[in-house]
Amino acid sequence: MTQHQVPSTTHDRAGRPAADERSATSARSTPASPVPLAVRRSHDAPAGVPEHAEHPLGRLRRAVTPGVGGIIRRDKTKTKVKKKTPQELADEQKPQSGTTYTLAEARAKLKSFDHNQSGVPFRKQIAGAWADYIFATFSTLKAGVVRDTYKSSFDKGHVDEFSVSQEIDGIPEIVIHAHMDKDGKPKPGNGVHWKWEDGEKVAESYEMSSALVAKLLDSAKAKTSWTTKVSLPTGGGTGTPTPTPTTPTPPTTPVTTTVTPTLPTT
């Protein structure tokens, strides 16, 4: 059996190691000048915060560039894009302020929102806005030919009241419809409106202002058309009276005279 020899240690009377042994042990356990550990810094600590006082994750978060590897964090400062309402989308399809349109362009826009496009939200608002733009922008518009004069369900106040359908030179897509009083003048209120040229029977109309009525409705032509059609007197009234038929006088029966001849005597 092999025996290992343990080095001996000199102790004093109190059982402590000798002075030379204590000095050697102290020199081995406590370095005379501590050496700091190497720290790899990719970014300086915030101002006023000592490097050793900052949490290591703080340096890591500051060192990582969003979107270029490392940790990608959502930017909470960005706001979500608000979805536009149907009204906002419709407003974008109306004539835009500061934009100039030709008559052809405006007519094309107007027609693209006619009664056949019934599924478009706020379609009537858009069509009305384009018609208003045309009325206000183009001074060359004028009253067109009278299409027809007739009796409608709104013309029951007087026997001489009537309605008229009239075209507008410059906007063939629409026609004017007006309810006229007994004197051939437009009725107040919603008496004059425009309708689609190919949808006069459709229950859809757009009211016209009094200024547009004065400019684009030819009341004189409408009255003449109605008077000619039904033979109404030009001054209004109850119409042309029917003449009373006269009973013809029967011919006189002629009187027949019989003549008896006289025979000679013998």
UniProtKB/TrEMBL annotation:
Question: For bias kind Low complexity, which ranges apply?
Answer: 254-266
Bias regions of kind Pro residues — which residues? 242-253
Q: Where is the composition biased (Basic and acidic residues)?
A: 10-23
Q: Which domain of life is it from?
A: Bacteria
Q: Where do the record's region annotations for Disordered lie? A: 1-99, 227-266
Q: Where is the composition biased (Basic residues)?
A: 75-84
The molecule here is called Uncharacterized protein
